[in-house]
Amino acid sequence: MAPAHAIGGLGALPTVTGSIGERPMDLARIRNFSIIAHIDHGKSTLSDRILEMTGAVDMRQMRDQYLDSMDLERERGITIKAQNVRVEWKGDVFHLIDTPGHVDFGYEVSRSLAACEGVVLVVDAAQGIEAQTLANCYLAMEHDLEIVAALNKIDLPAADPDRYAAEIEKVLGIPADSILRISAKTGTGVDALLDAVAERIPPPTGDEDAPLQALIFDSQFDQYRGVVSSVRVMHGRLTAGSKVTFMQAAASHEAIEIGIRRPVPTPVAELGPGEVGYLIAGIKEVAQARSGETITTSLRGADTPLAGYRDPKPMVFSGLFPIDGDEFENLRDSLEKLSLNDASVTYVPESSGALGFGFRCGFLGLLHMEIVKERLEREFGLGLIATAPSVEYQVTQTDGSVVHVANPAELPQVQSIERIAEPYYKILIITPTDYTGTLMELCQARRGEMGKIEYLSSERVELQYELPLAEVVVDFFDQLKSRSQGYASLDYEPSGYRASDLVRVDVLLNGQTADAFSTIVHRSGAAAYGRRMTEKLRELIPRQLFDVPIQAAIGGKVIARETVRAKRKDVLAKCYGGDITRKRKLLERQKEGKKRMKSIGRVEVPGDVFISVLKLGD
Predict the structure, then answer these.
(1) pTM of whole model > 0.85?
(2) CATH of 394-499, one of 3.40.50.12780, 2.60.40.10, 3.30.70.240, 3.40.190.10
(3) φ, ψ dihedrals at 279, nearest 5°
């Protein structure tokens, strides 16, 4: 194996753990921390400056969003996957984890925090505390982590660091004089931030002589090397070439390669307590290396696994169907590989009369759903149709049994339902006071119940509401941004189930139910939804040789109807004058043929019609 300093062209770096015969690194030198913030407050830019200032990346190879490896991340300017890197600063070793900021990827943040002893909380000096600043800060407090707060973007003309430092002190209780002032873009104050990390964040604890316990906090699939797992060693030593056991999966493998990311993957011989790195064990079965798994040595290993993570609970469900039916097996394999990298995606097979075979998938939110669909199409070359997003309902039947329904087509018959409960979310909105009225109106129109209203300052207010998740998933976020001119921010968390007056609206084409268009809505909005759906379908479905009635129905009751008029073939084209009875006979025969065709005819709905209709919420 080449010495670590020769790999990746990084120049002469200090010797890393793993040099043959060297003891694991002194724990007092290690700092493990995450960068957390609201979306677009400068996490990835700060990571770039840290990589530059610590000499981890050569200036010639430097690019913006260096740790965002996916094309999708770079195009959208957001972080989707948490990334880790090892850097050195004034004799200390920092393991830095750059986390996502969007509410849908909060699960990635919580996994990262389990591998850290502290966080750097970044707040925009021109915008102050936003909804996810609070959510991520409370998450760090739950993990009992040391918080180093920094106001970023002090170079902006609109920056007001004194005002927002006072706001942070008032809302989060972090002393204003301990909050650092930095500009991640220009590098101002970043060296002082790194010094503060070394001073304030405690070193990890761990016993190098204890049996090995290492936590997998992320995994990804490499088609040439199998599963590559990101690991944090808690106790003991992880050695290359040793036999290791994955405790929850009860599977043993050889540690073919272990290493560190600086950020170029650099193989080492050993990782000790407190260190973060990667493990390649030639695993091809993706289920054997899920996030939250504990690794120990096969000989004289640990008796108990680490706590791991709570499984994330999907909140939004959608059917994913391949446009080409022959791609079903490819879709299954692709979902299996993707779920290794993103354990929050769930999927079960389902079939649809209109769309064929596919999977009912569970996501953490609408952006998460959009990202997963786009990743499947890009990384695995699939063409997909996604059905309208729905949520999971709790249905209590007349016999007392409770069933969970994520697919509207699976809702039991009306006569066997005693009550339907839907998930509610507690939402937190932080907005300038000018937009308070219009945002309260939006929440109340979506069946929201106000929790509290609190003024953070004379210009900014915090609103708390409880809303049904079904009212949030479609276009609530877009409406929020539109009504507040982009200034309001949103965070949300589950708050349990409540009984509601819900009904299933079915769409019938020529008398046959098109299950892909079925949805569950509140009874008060059912008629309006039915009218919108039938009108849109009338415009999009191509004309057939017979009239096609499009109906929206609740049970056996039709609540809206439109008709796609038939194409009419001119059967009288050959009749130049002559007896009128002959023309009548031809028209009657055509009428009989249309009636017979209507009774046996199937309405062919092109794939792009599904895509257009399912954007109804837009």
Answers:
(1) no
(2) 3.30.70.240
(3) -135, 130
